[in-house]
Design goal:
alpha/beta, 7-stranded parallel sheet, Rossmann fold, single chain
Length: 273
Amino acid sequence: MRQFYVNSGMSLADKVIWITGASSGIGAATALELSKQKTELILSARTLEKLEEVQALCTANGATCHVLAIDLSKTDTHLAIAEEAWKLAGRIDVLFNNAGISQRELALETDLEVDRRVMEVNFFGTVSLSKAVAPMMLKAGGGHIALNTSIVGKIGFPLRTAYAASKHALHGFFDSWRAELDGQNLDITLICPGRTNTPISLSALRGDGSTHGEVDDWMKNGMTAESVAKRIVKAIRRKEKEVYIGSKESLLVYIRRYFPPLYYRIVTRVKAQ
C-alpha cells in the first residue's frame, strides 16, 4: 500500500547502510536486495557465522560488505559498536533497525521478566543504537534511520502482548523524535510488515522464557521475505515516513482506525499461533 512520501526516490548506489538482524529473514533479504544496487553494507546480528553466509551472497552481487556482531540487549556496548561501524565505512548513511524478538503466549501466562526482555531488545535496544548513531549522522550533515515496527506496532493481536507493546512504543518514540529533528536532515522511516514467512517464531519467547521452537502456519502462509525486502528498499529510497506492507493485516490498521467495533470483533476471533 502506498503511504506518505516526499519525493520520487533517490539512488542508493554508494550509500553506506547498516542493517541489524541481518543474519536471516527480512534483514538478510533486505541486505541481498540492497547488494544489487552498489551499496556498501554493514551487517549485524548476535553471531557472525550466519552473517558471513549473507555477506558472501551480498559480495557475490558486487556489494562491499562488512560484518559486525551486536547484541541489542547490551545497550552499554552500543556506542562503541556504532563508532566501530562508522570507522569500517567512513560514514553511515542509513541505519535499518531490523533486529528484534517475538512472543507467543497469553498475557496471564507470561512472566513479567519475559515482558521486560522483549521490551529491552525491541524498544530500548533500538532506541539505544539509534541514539548512538544519530549524533554522528548529524555531525556529518544528515542521515536516515529506518526501523521495522511490524503491523503489530499499529494494532493489538492475541498472544503478542509484549511484542505489540514494544512495537507500539517505537511508534511513539520515533514519531516524536522525527518532529524534534525537523529541518536537521535526519529522516525516519517506520516500516510495518504484516505476516512474513521467516524463522522469527523459532526464537519467539513463551511465557516462561523458553523458545517457541517452531515456525507457525500463520507465518508460513505469509509474504516472502524477498517481497517485503523490495518494498522496504523502496520506502528507504523514497524516505517515506511510514509504510504498511501486507494485505489483510494492513487493512486491519484502517479498520481499527475508522471502524473500531468491527476491528474488535475480528481480532477476538483470530486463532493466532
